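Below is how a single chain appears once it has passed through the pipeline. First comes the sequence as given, then the structure the pipeline wrote out for it. We keep one example in the README because the format questions we get most often are answered faster by looking than by reading.
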Amino acid sequence: MSHTILLWSLTYAQLALALAACLAGIRIVRGPRAQDRVLALDTLYIAVMLLFLVTGMRLGSIFLFEAAMVIAVMGFVASIALAKFLFRGEVIE
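Resulting structure:
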């Protein structure tokens, strides 16, 4: 019984995170300002990272957890670089 509940919960989480990633992708394309696009990119990498984690839980694979860690680190670095670019107009001084 608990296995079935966990399977349905993970399936629902995967669908919700996939929808969130699609909506973030739409905001990246249609965002009126650069700041909106940066926030949508942050949302997209978080949604994809969580999708990897949920899929790793469902499949029982540790490799997806490592991929989620790489996505999180790269997304954080990209967010800092884009914020610095929007604030100052250059990334490397």
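The chain has a mean pLDDT of 92.

See the next section for the split statistics.
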